[in-house]
Amino acid sequence: MIREPFHFRETFATILADDPAHVRAAKAGMMAARQALEAYIARDPFFAATFEPYEPDSDDPVIIRMAGAARRAGVGPMAAVAGTIAWAGVESMQEAGASFGVIDNGGDIALTADRPVRVGVHAGSAALSDRVAFVVPPQDAVLGICTSSATVGPSVSFGIADAVTVFSRDVALSDAWATAVCNEIRPDDRSVLERVDPTEVSGIFAIMGDVVVRWGELPPLVPAV
Description:
31% of the residues lie in helices and 29% in strands.
């Protein structure tokens, strides 16, 4: 298996693939998504600045995905940027014939896989951090596994959670809901989960210190090795 980093401006991704051609496809897909996003932001900077849902004047699929996910989760479009770019990369890999492809874009993952994939859980100083992993079964369709944290990394968060991981077929929505849940969930207040549509999001796993919250259907969780 090939493991290759990809860095371009704010994108710091890791690509897993079986074929060098699929790695090239992943990079091309992510670059195309970034170019579309940057071109739109150049003429509509508010799209990149707002923390609220926003209706863009664009028919580009990247912009539509980000804005649609943000609207459903109640956050700004940029909350979905990393997942959307990873999604574009994996779709490009599929178009190149890949049956296995994983892109981890700073903790926001898009994957398609003909074998089980282990996805570790990093939650800063929380007790479970780096001690458990999800075993994701083979996936014919693209799956999003996106994580937001109020205590790890440079992303803006209004919450306290060490990690919120969201599973969805819509990778942009997985990313947006990870941000939204991380912003609002508290050990004694889980009302944000009542807004999540179970037909769009399959599962959520949140860590807040010693508190663990499970919602929906999650892949098996096993000790990390």
